[in-house]
Amino acid sequence: MKCRRCTAKAVVQLRSHNAAFCRECFVFVFQRTVERSIDHERMFTRDERILVAVSGGKDSLALWDTLAALGYATEGLYLGLGIGRYSSASQRKAEGYAAKAGLRLHVVQLADESDAVGVPEAAAFTHRQPCAACGTMKRHHFDRAALAGGFPVLATGHNLDDEAARLLGNVLHWQLPYLAKQQPVLAPSHAKFVRKVRPLYRTSEYESATYAFLRGIDYVVEECPNSHGATQLIYKDLMNRLEAAMPGTKHSFVTEFLRRAHPLFAAAPEGSLGECERCGMPASSALCGYCRLIAEIERRRGEAVAHS
Ligand code: SF4
Ligand SMILES: [Zn+2]
Ligand SMILES: [Zn+2]
Question: Is 134 in the pocket of ligand 1 (CB under 6 A)?
């Protein structure tokens, strides 16, 4: 099999693109696809500082590597979620990549914050799914770190598979507010929020993994223990089956939604946000989602002590 671009021996085959590439051309095409997504969606410019949320996994490190290679001004943010061995292994990979690439990485440990609560504890105290508690905590700390560091943009490594699975879940349950917000660029809805972007929204998980491998990026292979049984994985599995039978399905599902359907959902007016009484971050009620979670944990901790 020959490379579509240069006719050298191909090492990667992309069924969804009906094409194969050699190492150099795959890396070039991946970076160009990301650059086109950034330009097409007007995500950011080379004059803006970008905070990249890195988990130590293939997607976020492939994203950081690509943005750095394309000449964007980036710094990384690693959030220590307190999920045992998985968290320590992923932190080592994020730090290892940053040191090797000579890029600046900010590390925030949930355990060191004033609330001192990690994801497992938050989930156990509130009887929430770990991923639901984790999502609330991540959003809060990403927003705070971007604001504190004066970054106008926060980039995350969500890929095409993530976007397709999220879209499927939102459509199956007709989550209209979530459908309105499902887009690769989310403009800030409050002065304390920053622009949130997903530059990998058109490249698949397989492509990120291949890119990371071909670039020699050492990423954490082990999955978060909480990912097993997560609803998102069921949607991903369904999308993978559709993709196997009809290559290109994920791509057209997401891109055609954005082109044709998203404007219909985005038309609904959004309520304005105030500020959280506890932490000062944007909130739709007296407390933001994160502080409501912390308040619930504190209440249940108090009840547990009272009954002991
Ligand atoms: S799988 Fe769930 S708990 Fe684990 S990092 Fe992802 S969102 Fe957080
Ligand atoms: Zn080639
Ligand atoms: Zn708050």
Answer: yes
